[in-house]
Here is the input.
Amino acid sequence: MTTYPLLDTINHPARLRELTVEQLPVLAEELRRFLIESVAQTGGHLSSNLGTVELTLALHYVYNTPEDRLVWDVGHQTYAHKILTGRREGMARLRSHGGVSGFPKRSESEFDTFGVGHSSTSISAALGMAQATRLKGENRHTVAIIGDGAMSAGQAFEALNNAGVADANMLVILNDNDMSISPPVGALHKHLARILSGSAFNAARKAGEKMLSVSPSLLEFANRVEGHVKGLLSPGTLFEELGFNYIGPIDGHDLDALIPTLQNLQKLPGPQFLHVITKKGQGYKLAEADPVRYHGVSKFQPDLGLDGEKPGDRPSYTQIFGDWLCDMAATDDRLVAITPAMGEGSGMMRFAERFPTRYFDVGIAEQHAVTFAAGLACEGLRPVLAIYSTFLQRGYDQLLHDVALQNLPVVFALDRGGLVGADGPTHHGTFDLSYITCIPNMVLMTPADENECRQMLTTAFRHDGPAAVRYPRGAGMGVKPEKTLGALPVGKGEIRRQGRRVALLAFGAMLAPALAAAEELDATVANMRFVKPIDCELILQLAAEHSLLVSVEENVLIGGAGAEVARVLEDGGSTVNFVRIGLPDRFIDHGDQALLLAETGLDKNGILQKVHSCLKPQDKP
Ligand SMILES: Cc1ncc(C[n+]2csc(CCOP(=O)(O)OP(=O)(O)O)c2C)c(N)n1
Here is the structure.
């Protein structure tokens, strides 16, 4: 007997649309159960997906997908969408190499209308699609689905601001679960909370909602009445002022409310805004009780939950950073720490507890986070901005124009540098060495081990200008950090192994495979430490003493650390045989971190192969 009798029959939303409304709650129950069992076997995002089961069902039921466009924000909540759009079997290999992506991806399915992974893009993209539809004289619906966390970013408001006057036919659904990854922050959150707590409003809304959901003919009347009372009553004024027709809030788990409301909204022209309330982790008690912990999970047993997890035997770089942050803050009260909504992921929770007044979670707002840090630095504080490498891409002009140009002492703790694994190309931190190296005034360090990471953070903190420490996802080589807070000489690398003929110039985590390869090659290995300022003296010395120089970095080759080495060799007039190992000029898919490193030649074997192919016959051992 099959466990999912109804879900088994749905391999396309067209089939879903043949069901009666009465069958949908049964399907929702099966879908939720399937989700829990599937994510338990693969790992992935859990809480957000459980919270959007009914919303996803209702959207595919009401809208004619894929002809109508659903544009998901962040995309971490699209597992139900994937299951209903023909990818249910693929869920067994979710986030594995060659398997289904953890995010919407245009090349994966025609139902994935917009590729995503970084937040707050959905309204912009949906508006573009809606305008294109109009220009082409086509007739379809466009819906953006965005969480309350993602709504806190500037881009979401830029898009709302534009959509309101563009008079585009589009619907924005605010999926409000009163959570980002962590509890939400900021004035928007307070505004949304007020909407929910206004009892007069709720009573009025309940009646209005019923009207709206049952009788399209009453809708116009309701709209007109609303227009009059909204200024006094409506908490949706913010969105109304931006030119949207605000409807809600409605219960996002109640299919009887969702479906008729969406059906009615379909008939309304112009920018529509539907506020839906959901619960993160809905239907799985453990996730409901601790949605933060169950936001992103590794494999688990559904009956035990994450309690069965064992901690890793080596601390992650994130933990090394978190410990350093507390230790440094205890010695220097100018230290303040900033996160754009990634306090847990960046290892800052102990700091937040110990130094609450010096901890700033600014919401999903990377651009603001960088300029905010600049402002703090202007007043003599020493801001440490913990930010994933991939998300600093969002704050690039702020890094250049607000921090570096003014030479402000901001420490960038760049987590998840290099290939991150299962999250894939939207999240790989493989561009930072290129995009930071070209900025004047920046100091850029790549630790090879845990202790060096701690030393580099101290170096950055003591440096009188902007400095970034870029460290990888996961654990390091297992080098225990010293308790003391020692700094390193700026711009100096070190020789870690003396060999002959070949010199490997390793940046950051690439030291480990370089050392392993060097044993077989009897090569010299330099731990370069600094990408900027790069150690010119060391490079030219190695060039003079060896016949082949090889740089190794976990970054795109274009504009990266190896490109810096090439510049130094050229400027120094060296004609040494030099090759670079790094990432090719293409986006790297999702998959296991070690597997991706091996596939791109960033492991011992890859280094050996490259060296053998480049050694001139006279230099071979
Ligand atoms: C630009 C950017 N910054 C940070 C993140 C990391 N991130 C992924 S999901 C998430 C929380 C999103 O909250 P919300 O939109 O409310 O969705 P929920 O998880 O609550 O369903 C964050 C901060 C991201 N994906 N993109």
Residues 214-222, 224-233 have pLDDT under 50 and may be disordered. The longest strand covers residues 548-556. The two ends are 66 Å apart (CA to CA).
